[in-house]
Design a protein that fits this description.
Distance between the termini: 36 Å
Shape: elongated
Largest sheet: 7 strands, antiparallel
Radius of gyration: 22 Å
Number of strands: 13
Order of helices and strands: HEEEEEEEEEEHEEE
Strand content: over 45%
Helix content: 10-25%
Length: 206
């Protein structure tokens, strides 16, 4: 009987620990998007139930250049955060996904993402496709994980009150065509441009 009781106690302890780990650390509100890549907020914004991921799909981000010309596009996600006491943000992973095509010669493209949380700027994530390089992909994702705790250590979060603040994540693109016969296509003809941020929270040190 004692051995059965031990097994039940261990199982309950494990279950309670999992519930604690599944606790929602951050609650998001006032989600919005703006920019010439998502005019009038024309974008799909989602947050996972646990609050650990924000995503933006900009359906009107895409463009096409035929012949000489240049263009800049951006779409910025805004979200207000309320962070539960007892946790700090260890890492943020930012990601941008896109697809398109460019002429090898006479065209150039830069895709990128920039994130800012609680007044702290993460390093920009960029990919350049210079004149002379190939770009012909249905969908590709760039991502980078960054130690947010190097910007805002645990002590910044682990106070007596819940911390609140703003998160901003921007997907951006700059393109140019210098050849009259050149072509550059991004995010159209069934292709999309999307941005995602993932958050890794840890318990405050005791």
């Amino acid at each position: 009987m004692y051995r059965v009781y031990q097994h039940v106690l261990v199982a309950l302890t494990f279950f309670a620990s999992n519930l604690a780990l599944a606790e929602t650390v951050v609650e998001w509100s006032n989600l919005s998007a703006g920019g010439n890549g998502c005019p009038a907020g024309n974008a799909v914004i989602t947050a996972t139930p646990d609050g650990n991921e924000l995503a933006l799909t900009a359906n009107n981000f895409g463009y096409e250049l035929k012949g000489e010309g240049s263009i800049q596009r951006f779409c910025r996600l805004n979200a207000s955060a309320t962070i539960a006491k007892g946790h700090y943000l260890d890492e943020i992973t930012q990601q941008i996904s896109y697809g398109g095509f460019k002429s090898k010669s006479g065209s150039a493209l830069t895709m990128g993402a920039q994130s800012r949380f609680l007044g702290f700027n993460l390093a920009p994530l960029t990919k350049e496709y210079a004149d002379g390089s190939r770009f012909n992909v249905w969908q590709v994702s760039l991502r980078r994980k960054e130690k947010f705790s190097n910007l805002a250590p645990a002590e910044y979060f682990c106070g007596e009150e819940s911390r609140t603040g703003l998160f901003q994540g921007t997907a951006a693109s700059t393109g140019s065509v210098t050849d009259p016969n050149g072509t550059l296509i991004v995010g159209i003809q069934g292709l999309t441009v999307s941005y995602k941020a993932s958050f890794n929270w840890l318990p405050c040190p005791t």
